[in-house]
């Protein structure tokens, strides 16, 4: 079970983890050992509450395919176990990020004093710039 919150968790059988060869430098070891991890998680077919599913599917994230499958590739560490833990942590973080409801924006207006201060600053700046013009020759 991958815990998301106090009441929500993802069962291990819904997460598909496969070992692959890592990219990049590493000498002979990188060609022989499959230490990177590919994690796949099907959002529509999961046991997550509908609230999480709709928010995840609406998310504009390159890790989520058009079919609603989360694909995470973890190859930060040299061992398979650490990469597996890293992939699971990144999946949990992604799911937790949609659980937070964004605070509604309350429209505000600038005060009358702030408006006057802004206009005064603009006229003062305009006067300064006007002094930079050509000086008449007498």
Q: What's this entry about, in short?
A:
With 138 residues, the protein is α+β, with helices and mostly antiparallel strands. Helices cover 38% and strands 17% of the residues. The strands form 2 sheets. The chain has a 3-stranded antiparallel beta sheet, covered by helices on one side.
Structural descriptors:
single chain, alpha+beta, Double Stranded RNA Binding Domain, elongated
Uncertain parts: none
Measured distance between first and last alpha carbons: 88 Å
Average pLDDT, all residues: 88
* CATH topology category name: Double Stranded RNA Binding Domain
Beta-strand segment tally: 5
Which architecture per CATH? 2-Layer Sandwich
Rg on CA atoms, Å: 27 Å
Beta-strand percent range: 15-25%
**How many discrete domains?**
1
Strand order of the largest sheet: 3-4-5
Describe this structure in words.
The chain is α+β, with helices and mostly antiparallel strands and 138 residues long. It has one domain (2-99): Double Stranded RNA Binding Domain. Helix content is 38%, strand content 17%. The chain has four helices and five strands. The protein has helices at residues 28-32, 50-58, 80-99, 112-130; strands at residues 2-3, 9-10, 15-20, 36-42, 69-74. It has a three-stranded antiparallel β-sheet, with helices on one face. The chain has a two-stranded antiparallel ribbon with strand order 1-2. A hairpin with a 5-residue loop joins strand 1 (2-3) and strand 2 (9-10). Helix 2 (50-58) crosses helix 3 (80-99). The longest helix is centred in the middle third of the chain and has 20 residues, at 80-99. It is elongated, with a radius of gyration of 27 Å. The protein starts with a strand and ends in an 8-residue tail after the last helix. Residues 21-37 form the Prokaryotic-type class I peptide chain release factors domain. This is Class I peptide chain release factor. Residues 106-138 are annotated as: Disordered.
């Amino acid at each position: 079970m991958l815990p998301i919150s106090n009441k929500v968790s993802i069962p291990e059988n819904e997460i598909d983890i496969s070992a692959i060869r890592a990219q990049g430098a590493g000498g002979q070891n990188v060609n022989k050992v499959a230490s990177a991890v590919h994690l796949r998680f099907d959002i529509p077919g999961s046991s997550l509450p509908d609230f999480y599913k709709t928010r995840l599917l609406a998310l504009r994230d390159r890790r989520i395919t058009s079919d609603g499958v989360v694909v995470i590739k973890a190859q930060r560490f040299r061992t398979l176990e650490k990469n597996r833990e890293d992939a699971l942590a990144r999946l949990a973080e992604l799911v937790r990020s949609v659980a937070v409801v964004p605070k509604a924006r309350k429209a505000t207006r600038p005060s009358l004093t702030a408006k006057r201060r802004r206009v005064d600053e603009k006229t003062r700046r305009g006067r300064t710039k006007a002094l930079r013009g050509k000086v008449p020759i007498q």
